[in-house]
Every structure is written in C-alpha cells, then in structure tokens.
Amino acid sequence: MSEFSRYHIGTPGQPWGDSEKQQWLAEQTPKRSYFDDVVVRIEQLRERFDVEQYGELDYTSKVGRKYPLFLVKSKEWRTELPTILVTGGVHGYETSGVHGALRFLETHAEYFQTRCNLLVAPCLSPWGYETINRWNPDAVDPNRSFVHPVAPAAESGLLMQAVADYADNLLLHIDLHETTDTDNSEFRPALAAREGTVNDNWNIPDGFYLVGDAKKPELEFQKAIITQVSQVTHIADADEDGKIIGVPLSETGVILYDGKGAGLCMGLSNAQYVTTTEVYPDSVNATPESCIQAQVAAVEGALKFALSA
Q1: Which of the listed residues 19, 27, 60, 265 has the most CB atoms within 10 Å of its CB?
Q2: Domains of the chain
Q3: What's the pLDDT score for residue 5?
C-alpha cells in the first residue's frame, strides 16, 4: 500500500469542520436520476410485490430535494416461512448494487417467494446514487452508521426502523456493494482529509469477492455464493501478502469484518447468514451488465444455500 496525494479540501492533520463539509457539498452535482433510474422500476413491480415507502430523506435545505425510500416485499407474507433481506445502494455510487437488487426482483424473486418472505431495499442512498457518492450530504458514510441508539446517517436509521420487526428473525441478509478505482482516487483520500489522518491506498482487487461477518463467518455459505458467481464473472485473487483490501483471506474470494462493530449494513440484524458482495466494475474483464449479473448470481447463490441448509 502507498500513501496517496493529499485531498484538496482541508488542512493536513486537522479534521474537517462545517466550512470544509460545506465546500465538499458544494462540489457535488447530480449526474443521473434516482427517480428515472430506480423509482420508475420499483413502481413497475407493484403488480407482483408489495411496495412500501418506509421513509423519506428530506435534504431540501442542503440539496433542494426530498427522496422517498422503498422496500419491496413478498405480496403473500407467510409467517411460517423464513425471511430474507436484500439491500443495495448503501453506497449510492456502487451502481451494480442498486441495479442488481432491481434485476433480482424483476427476474428471480418470484421463484423464491414460495419458499421465503422477501424484503428488498434496492437503494438506501438516493442522493449518493445521483451524485455518484459514498457519503450522504452531511459527509457521513451510511455504511458505518448502522449503530444504536441513534444512527449518524438518516439512510441507515430509517432502514433500521423499517426492518426492526424482522431483525431478530431474519435467516439471511445479503448487502450488495462494489469496490471501485475511485475508492483510491477519491473516497479514501476524502475520508482521511475529513478525519485529519493520513491515507494509505489499498490494492484494488480485480474481480468479485465477499465480506462475511467475522462473528458468524458461515464459510460454506460464502463458498456457495462464490461458486455461483464464478459462473458469470471472475473471482478476485489475493495480493502478494495473501490479502484483499488489507484483510487476510478466509476462503477463496472471502474476507471477514466485524459487521456490528464497524456499523456496517450487514450487521443491522441477527441473521444467521450474512454477507456483503463486492464487484469490481473497473476491470478490463467487466461490463456494467456482467456486474449486475454477478450481483444477481450472488443473491441467487445465497438464497439457494440458506433455504436448503
């Protein structure tokens, strides 16, 4: 790993204050539409699923807009069946997470509805989706904000409230993410600047990998997903130190984090089977379509294993 050049906002060694955060926010601009790309497709699912607005992000004073948030649920809820949660777009810039969740709903979800109750939140961070951003307008990372009693990011807190009645009884939670070249060129340097620390880049892995929960790794479950995804895209190799993003491999294409301890989305519940997908869209061997297919394959592999275990 090597130190990256200093971020252009802030003073080295000093955490950001309100003025630096305002400067950062002023530089962010919409590049695509959550309403056109995501909400329209969610609305088209209403005939086959229950669509529930579980909250609204009111960023009128910051960016001049409110964003409705949606859960797509099995239409015929059966209490005797296990419940499955799929989340996407916790980091809005990680495109295939959002579109993978939507594609799963459009193509595969109905098959599984007879075997489980489905909860799918396709895009937790609409502003991040529109501006291709990791943070929300307050310069807070939603995927470090799934904490009690008060989540630092509204995106996280609203989902936690929405699934609170299911959190202790989920069988499976799979959270769809990407690792991109901009992690090194933009987001890690920005994080170090915000915190007043020094940034060290990590080696961006070329290929798909998983981040399981160190407290309940369920490695056979993780391996089943890797096997399913390997049919549609390549799996990331470890670096020369035997690691992926600085963490030792536990299995081929699998590393482990403390989900709850780090405030990650995958730690929001007590599900038995938990994982976070990571797709690499900047690979010369990847396309936007193959990345979406990898996310769908990951969900399919996770469901097949959990429902047959």
Answers
A1: 265
A2: 18-308 (3.40.630.10)
A3: 65
